UniProtKB/TrEMBL annotation:
GO terms for molecular function: antioxidant activity; oxidoreductase activity. This is TlpA family protein disulfide reductase. Pfam families: AhpC-TSA (PF00578). It comes from Chryseobacterium pennae. Keywords: Redox-active center. It comes from the Bacteria. Residues 18-162 form the Thioredoxin domain. InterPro entries: AhpC/TSA (IPR000866), Thioredoxin-like_sf (IPR036249), Thioredoxin_CS (IPR017937), Thioredoxin_domain (IPR013766), Thioredoxin_ResA/DsbE_sf (IPR050553).
Length: 162
């Protein structure tokens, strides 16, 4: 019986380690746009954040809890888009590990063109973070400007993930 628990513990440890990214893809806006379009058959949650943004860091545990609840659902996907600087990529990787981020993390290295791509995501987005966009069937269904509570996140997902 003890051996079964040991094997189970090792399996769970490996599953958690596998769930975390060991590398962060660095993309430009066009690549992120393509990535979002590739998920058009899913309800997609896209959160823009940074390791230096206190409200972003505060809301991430809620996002991870919700992401983990829907981990087995093939119709659900969450992408965390880091707006940290490219030189801070190692800090982002360390943050993923320390905060146990299980959602896919992408580093958007396109700050110089932010006045071009921000309005393409949402005309009312002033550039502040955190920001969360929700897509269903390839179209945007909701835009949340600012920190999102667990209840609001759950409600938005529940209303759209049918």
């Amino acid at each position: 019986m003890k051996n079964i628990f040991k094997i189970l513990a090792i399996f769970l440890f490996c599953a958690v380690c596998k769930a975390q990214q060991t590398e962060v893809p660095v993309v430009k806006y066009e690549e992120l746009e393509k990535r979002i379009q590739q998920e058009k058959d899913k309800f997609l949650v896209v959160n823009f954040w940074a390791t230096t943004c206190a409200p972003c860091v505060k809301e991430l545990p809620h996002f991870m809890e919700i992401n983990n609840q829907h981990a087995g659902n093939p119709k659900f996907k969450m992408i965390l888009v880091s707006l940290d600087r490219l030189v801070d990529k190692e800090r982002v990787l360390k943050f993923i590990k320390n905060k146990n981020l299980t959602a896919e993390v992408i580093l958007l290295d396109d700050i110089k063109r932010m006045n071009t791509w921000i309005p393409k995501f949402e005309k009312d987005w002033d550039g502040n973070i955190p920001v969360t966009l929700f897509y269903k069937n390839g179209g945007k269904v909701y835009f949340n400007d600012g920190e999102m509570s667990k209840e609001d996140l759950e409600k938005t997902i529940t209303e759209n993930l049918q």
